[in-house]
Amino acid sequence: MRQFTGKPVSPGYARGNAFLLDRFAFPMIPHRVIDAAAVDAEQTRFQLAVERSVEELQELKARVLAELGHAQSAIFAAHLGLLRDQTFTDSVLSRMSTELVNVEHALHMEVNALCRMLTSVENAYIRERAQDIRDIGARVMKHLVEFGAGSCIELPPKSVIVTQELLPSETMDMDRKHVAAIVTEEGGENSHAAILARALAIPAVTGIVDATAQIAPGTELLVDGEQGIVTATPSTTAQRDFTNLKTHYDEDMSAAVAARGLQCETRDGTRVSLLANLNRPQEVDLVAAHHLDGVGLFRTEFLFLDAMAPPSMETHLDVYRQLVDGLQAGPLVIRTLDLGGDKIPPFLQADNEKVSKIAARGLRFSLIERALFETQLRAILTAAQGCDRIRVLLPMVLGKSDLEAAIETIRSVAREVGTSSVPSIGAMIETPSALFALHEILELAEFVSIGTNDLTQFMLAADRMDVGMTEDFSVLHPSVLRAIAEVVHAAGEAGREVCICGEAASYPRTACLFVGMGVRQLSMSPIRTARVRFLLRAMTRRHLEELADGALRSDTPAAVQKLLAGLTAEPVNDESPS
Ligand code: PEP
Ligand code: MG
To answer: How much of the chain exceeds pLDDT 70, in percent?
Structure first.
């Protein structure tokens, strides 16, 4: 038996046999030097291949829309956008005419150059877009040379796909009734293949180093998409433990899905608001689909990180209006740009000198790059006219001075826009500094939202990738829990609403603990809400308050976990971010 630990990117448990998908088995890309006279013919071949790819993508987009919804079909709409974007196609065409090379080689070189540029960026979100570029390149290449991109279309039953990286199109093209799980060496949580795996309810684990070299075809595998563990040739004990976990999970999941339309409240009637964390406007349909009370966090970084030029006020406005139109009821909390650090938009990256000067993140970045901030505020305030559901949330607030400066900016933009109704302004509590400026922040902000992802990272001096992965770097560390309790208490005293919008809110037992600590609003990825609602409905408020009391008096993360394990009959560790 061998165990591999990676990153869970799509939940659930599955067993099956390894099916190795080796893209490098494809024939070599032909490389030929061509005559100037042959350039036209090569360019025409390229244009035809692009046209066919566009037709194929239109069909795929429509199929995904019908099968999975807007949020997922947007992935292929973006692929279409890139193929239709002259910048990409012109670059390939010009490589042929200037370098006098055949079309396959020109395309291969252009895709590689783009991917190299994207993968050199520190920001994980941008790096993961390289996967889409490779996918688009493979699609066009398929029409140019004789190899099929969908080489895993026919699979034996219960296949666990093991591959270096799975592309979004491959995820859709697979014979899905035979795909038990996906194990990859690369590809993060926000990669489009991971998003599709979640939508298709296929458990997936990424980041297993050299998986394709270490796992032989046909090997029996157990894939734990909750903890990110892959077990090869499991022992009888491992088999038995896995079966228990899977049975509990499957039972929970079907009960949770059945309870999806019910109120989110404890057994004794304490109501908890379940809200959505959204990263794209197309995801707004998920709010109604999962019976949620609104949007607790709309991240706007994509508007900057996906763009080659600063987004215009109209671009922002389109997005916010799309959300308002798509959201039937409840609040829409729009978080202003949370850039800086590893999140530098492509249009600022070329300007090395400028970037190195902006040694600031979140709100401080916005107060330096004021034009980006003010354009966004202009759009939010315009969208908010006549729509009282919009709220503004400021990221990485440090204390009184930055928050005051931001509020003053919002008021001055409101005067300029000519509106007297300024939306509610909230502050994210996600830095140790904000914890020591709580009272000043609560005087200025109308609501607060606790970002446990960053708060845990900064409090425990951990790498963000480690947060939630190991016990010591977990939100369940008593110091982090005490900090959260302090915020909840202070917000209550000040009469301010408090929400938890970090990943930790989506772990059912941890969510119960937060409710025991007095939190009444939890915002998370929509697909994770069913199990939170289900577990909360089985608990009484008194029980949760006792649990919170015990957790806050504990002195190690392990002691807190032990308390949480008692919440159900389930074995420990299956859902806490430990
Ligand atoms: C957080 O830090 O917990 C949070 C919600 O913000 P983000 O994940 O976007 O940094
Ligand atoms: Mg954050």
So the answer is: 91
